[in-house]
Design goal:
With 342 residues, the chain is α/β, with parallel strands linked by helices. The chain contains eleven helices and 15 strands. It is globular, with a radius of gyration of 20 Å. Bound molecules: NADP nicotinamide-adenine-dinucleotide phosphate.
């Protein structure tokens, strides 16, 4: 075992895509309970763009590496107890990180975070799974506790998490409404049986009042603001509003997120309906077993074709700044995956 020299992308200072820089670094031998991975693919999420701008609740200080999810090949590891049969050099694993840093050629990670890829699942598809789909599991199962036949509203059903919610919601047998404005959204949402509401032209509260007068069992929200109260009012007795993000004012996102979270907590004090907050990086840290079981299940579902993420673009890792710029211009629909292969 020896030191590995590699390149990674770092946010040098908060700002636009131009603050993403390539730097060289070295990885020493893995400490006990850790593995070094050669990264094959890293997923890009909207959260990466927020963190780069300095507008993210779980913000790290620059310089830091963005990226919450990756697929890598185990280079070497230092076991600190009994090891499962799959834990060998060369095994491909998927990971959802808790502190970002996936935009790199190599990473060192704790062994508990590695989830082996099922045979035949390609790294690009697998790298598009962890964060969006674990968030969907957290929202639907942990906090939403929805059941087959329940009617739900998915805000932003065309987005990364919104599409994961739609895919898993369809498998669960939910009746789904989804807000979206992207071109082709109606068709995209219809693939998972989601009834489209164009939030630029329609008021989702009015649509639901008219079509679901008894109310819906759950609303999944990543916008916050006045829509929170409206979503809460759309709930049937016993229904739940699950918030997993707050779209605040640029430059004030952290304060707006805290304000939104406090509102959601306060709404939960009222009787008759529930509210809940989903924050997956914390949930992973607090529940290693939940994380491993859920990610293993999700990767298996992707392998069997039951949840296939929509890949919008596959780009070299070193093009991360161009990818962020294209996403900000809304030029790419679907998940972007960065790869380290030449
Ligand atoms: N809680 C957690 O642990 C967790 C985990 C992952 C992500 N997140 C957060 O979840 C949010 C979404 O992430 P993502 O990666 O899914 O982002 P994304 O792919 O950019 O999707 C966001 C979607 O929101 C929709 N949207 C924008 N304004 C809207 C409005 N006023 N009403 C309804 N929909 C609207 C957009 O739809 P159109 O383009 O169709 O308009 C877009 O598709 C981010 O804030 C992210 O940080 C939280």
């Amino acid at each position: 075992m020896s030191e590995i020299t590699y390149r990674k992308i770092v946010v040098e200072r908060f700002g636009g895509p131009e603050v993403l820089r390539t730097v060289e670094a070295t990885l020493p031998e893995p400490p006990p309970g850790h593995a070094r991975l050669k990264v094959l693919a890293a997923g890009v999420g909207f959260t990466d763009l927020m963190a780069r701008s300095g507008d993210y609740l779980l913000q790290r200080r620059p310089p830091f590496g963005p990226g919450y999810e990756l697929v890598g090949e185990i280079v070497d590891f230092t076991a600190d107890g009994p090891r499962p049969a799959w834990l060998t050099s060369g095994t491909r694993v998927a990971v959802s990180l808790t502190k970002m840093g996936a935009y790199a050629e190599y990473v060192t990670l704790p062994l508990w975070q590695l989830v082996p890829l099922p045979d035949g699942l390609d790294p690009v598809t697998a790298a598009a799974i962890p964060l969006d789909h674990l968030t969907a599991v957290s929202v639907l199962e942990t906090h939403g506790r929805v059941r087959a036949g329940d009617t739900v509203l998915i805000q932003g059903a065309s987005g990364g998490v919104g599409q994961a919610l739609s895919r898993l919601g369809a498998l669960l047998g939910l009746r789904m409404y989804g807000t979206a404005s992207a071109p082709g959204a109606e068709e995209l949402l219809a693939r998972h049986g989601v009834t489209h509401i164009d939030y630029r032209r329609q008021d989702f509260g009015e649509v639901l009042r008219e079509r679901e007068p008894e109310g819906v069992q759950a609303v999944f929200d990543h916008i916050g603001g006045p829509g929170l109260r409206k979503g809460y009012r759309a709930l049937a007795p016993g229904g739940v509003l699950v918030s997993y993000a707050f779209a605040g004012r640029p430059g004030h996102m952290v304060a707006d997120t805290v304000r939104g979270a406090v509102r959601v907590k306060a709404m939960n004090l009222r009787p008759g309906r529930r509210t809940a907050l989903s924050m997956v990086p914390h949930e992973i840290k607090a529940g290693h077993d939940w994380y491993r079981t859920a990610l293993e299940r999700l990767l298996g579902m992707a392998r069997s074709g039951r949840t296939v993420p929509r890949i919008g673009a596959v780009e070299p890792l070193m093009k991360a700044a161009d990818v962020h710029a294209a996403l900000e211009r809304r030029e790419i629909a679907g998940k972007v995956v960065l790869t380290t292969e030449a």
